[in-house]
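re: that chain from earlier
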Amino acid sequence: MPATFKYSFFGGAILTLILGLWLTQLWDAENQVRLHSEHFLRQIEKRNASAAGGFLAEDYRDPWGHNRALLLNRLRLILRFFSSLTITVTPPQVILHSRDATWSSSIHLAGAGGEFAPEIIERVNSLTKPFELGWRQESWRPWDWKLVEVKNPGLELRDEL
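^ sequence. v structure.
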């Protein structure tokens, strides 16, 4: 009986150590920003503006004058133009600044849809500068990151929408 207890104890300790190492890697700030960025873009790719909105901070602002509510309204409108949408990114760079982080990557679109879809695809794909997604850790929880800003100096948005 003592040998069984000893093996069970060591087996449990090893499993706990492996789980702890895995969670440490998973909850690493850089990895969380990468995962949140991927999941945010996947929700847009699925044309699910509501789910994408779950990634946005309440105080979201961008250089084009969008706040959270305006961005969600425009995202819903734009995503209606697509019957299918595929988003591909170049390998991203993540820069950490304490509780803030910037994810940077070129984004390319492919898809089909209404009359404005090809223009949107062409406009995004012609950009030479990468998109920058600004993230902020909202609480002590390692997975609690929210998008506070999206930037691309090469993208000009008209106020026509």
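The chain has one domain: 28-151.
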